[in-house]
């Protein structure tokens, strides 16, 4: 444990690698000018080898005395209540509220005696700050140089408090900042209770980031058995480092893990990390790795990468940190390279979205034995150029772009369905003319038109979607047919237009309003509008893959192929201000609209619709920075279904927060209707010593919680006791030991990390 002290002193500030910045003594401006300030006390004052300033200075023979002052020379600064300097032999004695600082040195104490020229001496009742977070206290220290120290009765902790939550006590400690350190009788105390003891240890002690062993990780689990982990940290100069972190699980084998980080300059940083294990109980290889890279060049080019891969969606829950990291794990990946110019933007992007499914035969496609175990949706890659709007024909503007890309669906098979891969190319070009046609008093007309040409290298093997408006009663196959892109090539040409007429705005003011804690003036503004949308029909729309909105809603105003519709709507705003001297703020926004389809269109989930299709409602309420409510509802009156989304975000002054989201939708990439409730947040109490963090997902179709996590933490200075409960409602062989409910108890020490964990 204590063999890791050099790394604890220098490397625990990671993952961000600090740029090299040697500690400098404060400038004279920070402490008032430290300049030779002569008084009428004789020529001896000119013989002191430093700049000084103080309340009172005197000289008694060869003894020079400064009270309530500071001296500075050659990058070394000393402040004290009383400083005595013996001019004859260069001996210096300081007493009371001592502060000694220099490159790589910050020391406080009550008494200091040293040879000012040789930089040697001793100090009593001292406290030394060790970057990045550590504090060392000692009854006595002797030093031959400012790089070689010998401490007695040492107390070491990452907490600046007088009574830290945990600390290490040593009978003696010798440190050579250019070599090694040796310690005797070291013990770690959790409060008054000693939990580790090491009689002797030797470790590297360079002042900069130093390679070495990190503290061991110990734990117990009813599933994995005893856990022992030992990490090694390797510094690679001032801009990179790496950590190798193997962990041994008595029942499952060795989990090999590691991480490498780099930051060569302020505009470039990145990291790569991963874990892998051949799990004995499952006789399978499980893994998780990620790559992150950010590069923002001064000439405007930007490169970002966020790559995440895993063998299954439970590997993080079984072998990840798991404590204090509540919420769903993302397995999406993205790569972006681009630059903006004065006339447009150019970019190259690649992406992958991966979803895992497991089998429960309950009549739902997600839990059908024929549904794939895993689906990868990939962009491999896509190049895009867009030119910014340019003025054309008065108030009308012209913009457009070109996209060239390759896309793929990769389906991993289940026990009854073999794996398959489908890839196709897509080239898309569009140009758009938009702007205001005119303003006639309170009435306004806006216009938008688009021309689009899209070529597909392959189409669906069978028309999953019915382009004839339901004449053949074709519906979407909920298994793999929407992803089987192995048909003939196709080219789609579309022309789309949208005209919107806005009526006069009508408003009313309300003075001296007091409601739900709000006091002030309110103003309600309403604006009706009428819109007409028409998009040309592509006869083979049912055979086109539905990868993104270019495929599903290629026209303006999010219109589908062959759409002819008109829309009636009402925009409303509630504005407020506390008094007549302040400006109005947009407190709430509400839009209600209905759309009539004169021709049948294909909906995102494979159904078709004609006639009065929906009533759309959008509500956003944000009265202050602590509360936000968002509601969207789209009701399909003909089919009796609806798409709903409600989110609530609430923040408190003490840092507590609450999040609530409700959703019921058929508009998703897998064409399967979903309905559920998500809740999460964190509650703080007792001056932030007690924290409750929770996250839960309730599935209305399954009538139960798909997943939930609750963590209760009691936090003392630099110590946290965390109890976490995890529930996973997936019945799969990859749930270790077949368990769906787990309890973790973890002891976390600041500077050392998770010292001990227990799982059942």
Please explain how this structure is put together.
- The strands form two sheets. The protein has a 27-stranded mixed beta barrel.
- A hairpin with a 3-residue loop joins β17 and β18 (253-265).
- Mean pLDDT is 77; it is low at 1-44, 322-328, 358-371, 467-476, 635-642, 666-672 and 731-739.
- Helix content is 2%, strand content 61%.
- The chain is built from three helices and 42 strands.
- The protein has a domain at 2-208: Sandwich (lipopolysaccharide transport protein A fold), CATH 2.60.450.
- It is mainly beta.
- It is globular and about 105 Å long.
Based on the model shown, name its key terms.
760 residues; mainly beta; lipopolysaccharide transport protein A fold; 27-stranded mixed barrel; globular; disordered N terminus
In short:
The chain is mainly β. The chain is built from 3 helices and 42 strands.
């Amino acid at each position: 444990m204590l063999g890791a002290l050099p790394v604890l002193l220098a490397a625990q500030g990671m993952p961000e690698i600090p740029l090299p910045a040697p500690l400098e003594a404060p400038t004279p401006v920070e402490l008032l000018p430290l300049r030779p300030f002569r008084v009428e006390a004789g020529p001896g004052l000119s013989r002191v080898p430093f700049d000084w300033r103080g309340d009172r200075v005197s000289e008694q023979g060869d003894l020079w005395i400064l009270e309530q002052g500071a001296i500075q020379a050659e990058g070394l600064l000393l402040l004290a209540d009383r400083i005595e300097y013996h001019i004859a032999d260069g001996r210096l004695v300081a007493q009371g509220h001592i502060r000694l600082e220099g490159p790589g040195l910050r020391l406080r104490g009550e008494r200091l005696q040293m040879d000012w020229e040789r930089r040697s001496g001793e100090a009593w009742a001292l406290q030394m700050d060790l970057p990045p977070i550590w504090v060392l206290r000692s009854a006595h220290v002797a030093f031959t140089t400012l790089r070689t120290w010998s401490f007695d009765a040492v107390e070491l902790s990452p907490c600046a408090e007088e009574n830290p939550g945990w600390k290490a006590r040593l009978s003696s400690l010798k440190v050579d900042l250019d070599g090694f350190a040796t310690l005797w009788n070291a013990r770690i105390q959790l409060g008054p209770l000693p939990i580790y003891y090491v009689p002797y240890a030797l470790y590297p002690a360079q002042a900069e980031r130093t390679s070495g062993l990190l503290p061991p990780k110990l734990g117990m689990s009813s599933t994995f058995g005893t856990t022992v982990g030992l990490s090694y940290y390797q510094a690679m100069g001032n801009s990179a480092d790496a950590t190798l972190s193997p962990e041994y699980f008595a029942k499952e084998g060795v989990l090999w893990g590691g991480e490498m980080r780099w930051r060569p300059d302020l505009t470039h940083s990145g990291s790569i990390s991963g874990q892998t294990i051949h799990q004995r109980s499952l006789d399978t290889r499980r893994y998780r790795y990620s790559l992150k890279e950010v590069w923002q060049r001064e000439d405007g080019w930007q490169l970002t990468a966020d790559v995440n891969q895993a063998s299954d969606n439970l590997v993080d829950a079984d072998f990840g940190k798991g404590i204090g990291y509540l919420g769903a794990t993302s397995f999406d990946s993205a790569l972006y390279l681009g630059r903006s110019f004065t006339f447009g933007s150019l970019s190259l992007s690649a992406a992958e979205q991966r979803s895992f499914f497991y089998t429960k035969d309950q009549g739902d496609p997600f839990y059908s034995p024929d549904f794939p175990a895993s689906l990868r949706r990939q962009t491999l890659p896509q190049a895009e150029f867009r030119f910014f709007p340019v003025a054309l024909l008065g108030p009308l503007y012209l913009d457009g772009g070109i996209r060239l890309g390759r896309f793929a669906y990769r389906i991993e098979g289940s026990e009854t369905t073999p794996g398959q891969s489908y890839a196709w190319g897509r080239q898309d070009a569009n140009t758009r003319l938009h702007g205001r046609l005119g303003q006639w008093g309170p009435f306004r007309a806006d216009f938008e038109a688009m021309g689009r040409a899209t070529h597909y290298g392959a189409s669906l093997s069978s028309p999953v979607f019915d382009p004839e408006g339901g004449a053949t009663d074709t519906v979407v196959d909920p298994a793999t047919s929407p992803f089987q892109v192995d048909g003939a090539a196709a080219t789609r040409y579309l022309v789309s237009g949208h005209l919107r007429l806005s009526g006069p705005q009508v408003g009313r003011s309300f003075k001296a309003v007091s409601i739900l804690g709000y006091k002030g003036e309110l103003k309600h503004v309403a604006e009706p509008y009428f819109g007409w949308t028409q998009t040309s029909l592509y006869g083979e729309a049912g055979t086109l893959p539905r990868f993104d909105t270019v495929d599903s809603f290629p026209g303006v105003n999010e219109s589908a192929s062959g759409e002819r519709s008109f829309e009636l709507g009402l925009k409303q705003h509630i504005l407020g201000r506390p008094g007549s001297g302040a400006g109005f703020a947009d407190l709430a926004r509400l839009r209600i609209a209905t759309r009539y389809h004169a021709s049948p269109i294909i909906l995102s989930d494979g159904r078709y619709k004609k006639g009065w299709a929906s009533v759309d409602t959008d509500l956003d309420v944000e009265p202050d920075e602590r509360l936000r409510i968002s509601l969207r509802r789209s009701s399909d009156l003909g089919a009796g279904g609806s798409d709903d989304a409600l989110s609530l975000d609430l923040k408190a002054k003490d840092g507590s927060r609450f999040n609530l989201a409700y959703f019921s939708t058929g508009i998703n990439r897998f064409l399967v209707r979903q309905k559920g409730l998500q809740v999460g947040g964190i509650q703080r109490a007792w001056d932030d010593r007690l924290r409750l963090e929770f996250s839960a997902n309730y599935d209305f179709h399954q009538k139960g919680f798909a997943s939930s996590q609750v963590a209760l933490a009691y936090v003392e200075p630099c110590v946290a006791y965390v109890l976490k409960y995890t529930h996973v409602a997936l019945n799969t062989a990859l749930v270790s030991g077949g368990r769906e409910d787990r309890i973790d108890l973890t002891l976390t020490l600041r500077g050392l990390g998770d010292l001990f964990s227990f799982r059942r």
